[in-house]
Specification:
Elements (H helix, E strand, L loop, with lengths): L2 E10 L4 H12 L3 E8 L5 E10 L1 H12 L4 E6 L5 E12 L5 H10 L3 E6 L2 E8 L1 H12 L3 E6 L3 E4 L5
Antiparallel strand pairs: 1-3, 1-4, 2-3, 5-7, 5-8, 5-9, 6-7
């Protein structure tokens, strides 16, 4: 069954490594829905988390192909359970004197943080899983969403294992 999965890739932090990984995905016809990348706690290494759609066969193929890329150290497909997943979203919503307090109250319920207040808008920061962010977006639609910016998913296994 095709569904969304997160793939962790640990690489040596070399020039062009992200480009080589993404080129492999393009050549093979795999679509990357989201991507986050950054350095790790270990100097000289980078961590990429890719969100892709696929079934078990496609995921196994992706894992084998990514391992073939020079400078890739580890490839892990996160299981559906035992993983912490988070995304960051900035959302700009129309607001005025009448709606501002309602929007801030809803943001508080979702543990959002108001970053900017302008005469006709609010910018709110939210962190959470995809379901939480979608829920907040739905709540804000009636006020008028002006802009949304989201990171990709950042994921980490629970416990001591990587």
């Amino acid at each position: 069954m095709i569904k969304e999965h997160e793939i962790l890739i640990i690489t040596k932090n070399t020039s062009g490594i992200v480009s080589r990984i993404m080129s492999m995905f393009n050549r093979r016809g795999y679509s990357v829905n989201k991507m986050t990348a950054g350095v790790t706690n270990k100097p000289g290494y980078a961590r990429l988390t890719l969100t892709v759609d696929g079934d078990d066969k496609a995921l196994n193929q992706i894992q084998k192909q990514v391992y073939k890329i020079v400078d890739v150290v580890k490839v892990k497909i996160f299981p559906s359970e035992g993983v912490i997943r988070r995304e960051l979203m900035l959302i700009k919503v129309k607001s005025d004197a009448q709606t501002r307090a309602q929007i801030v109250q809803i943001a508080d319920i979702y543990r959002g943080k108001v970053l900017d207040v302008a005469p006709n808008s609010l910018v709110i920061e939210l962190t959470g899983n995809v379901k939480k962010l979608r829920g907040f977006v739905e709540m804000m639609k009636s006020y008028g969403i002006l802009e949304i910016a989201k990171t990709g998913v950042v994921a980490m296994s629970r416990g001591e294992k990587m």
